[in-house]
Amino acid sequence: MKHILLTALLLAGTGALYGQEVSYEEYDLDNGLHVILHQDNSAPVVVTSVMYHVGGKDRTDGRTGFAHLFEHLLFEGTKNIERGKWFEIVSSRGGQNNANTSQDRTYYYEVFPSNNLELGLWLESERLLHPVINQEGIDTQQEVVKEEKRLRYDNSPYGQILPVLGETLFKVHPYKDPNIGYMEDLDAATLEDVVAYNQKYYVPNNAVLVVAGDIDLAATKTLVERYFAEIPRGEDIVRDYPEEAPITQEIRSKAYDKNIQIPASIVAYRTPGFAERDAYVLDMISTYLSDGKSSKLYKKLVDEQKQALQVGAFNIAQEDYGMYVVFSLPVGETALETLVEESEEEIAKLRLDLISERDYQKLQNKFENDFVSSNSSIQGIASSLATYYMLYGDTSLINKQIDIYRSITREEIRDVAIKYLKPTQRAVIEYLPGDKMDN
């Protein structure tokens, strides 16, 4: 019942947020922790969240997967929270909590009725100040990660696509390795390795705390100071990842998946990091090509020519480099090469001609709607504030990112397609049923 009530309260606050500019206040504690506060008193709900600038790419060779392991490990318990009691504490007070990890960051959050604001802040300060990291917890969470890998990757249809993309498009940058890591690396990890990782990355100067919802700003600042100011600053983190050489010749490869019966065609391009303007243009190109039944690839390959069961163009956003992917499943005896050729025909049109004014206006309307929707819940706002600050370096994008999309011209769409989406800069992957050893 408490979870039902909390969900209802979250929904109740949605209408008031819709379409409004997001107000916020941000500042730094002396230890380097960045704090962002967003006040909205339309519903008695509060989100407490912390994003750490650490993800799958932050690893050394032979020690992959630590960021994802920590996503699980730091719910084990702390000096003041008994092992296994974290979720019980949250649920008993009517709350929800979770975490997620990408190649670039790790995000933890709680959603509570607003009278539990102090509890949410205490929990996150405990995670940062007093985590209990021991061999028992590591062993337990290693098994959890292995089971997740089996379910989401090894035994899931098309579950190997992201790892295959990473190893195909990247040769030296850590994006070449899967976010979840290699199981042999986790097995080889020592307690000393894990403790050192925590001491390096889980420090206040590598984090942003966001408190959003039904709060009083002055009272919240006092609580933030009380629970986080004493946490010692860590060493400055220096990242110096190797740069990838440009792809100048088409790459052809095959991958195998024992969990599928229908093969897939994958065409992939290495693209710029998501904070670069060109990445925004690629977002618009992917929407133009495959968002909805009237989009170019869907209408052509699925509706008219009936060559594909499914087709999609995706701009997979990452901090250092992106991946632009065209994925399609053939109908019947349609050859994978046919799907590659037909998709390239549509991309070639983007390189040669300007899209129509009508299609351009449809794109602008779609991005306007998506932008407003992204700020329509307290949870979405908290996540966006953390992301824009931590990964884009500009918190104000929560209100003005749409201006970037508005300013993109039809000429830019053509020029970015020319710059990144050439046949000589792509990888063509045949994703086939079966086991590689059987082929």
From TrEMBL:
Coiled-coil blocks: none
Keywords, ordered alphabetically: Hydrolase, Metalloprotease, Protease, Zinc
Domain Peptidase M16 N-terminal: 35-149
Domain of life the protein comes from: Bacteria
Gene3D superfamilies to which the protein is assigned, alphabetical: Metalloenzyme, LuxS/M16 peptidase-like
Pfam families for this protein: Peptidase_M16, Peptidase_M16_C
Domain Peptidase M16 C-terminal: from-to ranges: 189-366
Family: Belongs to the peptidase M16 family.
Name the record gives this protein: Insulinase family protein
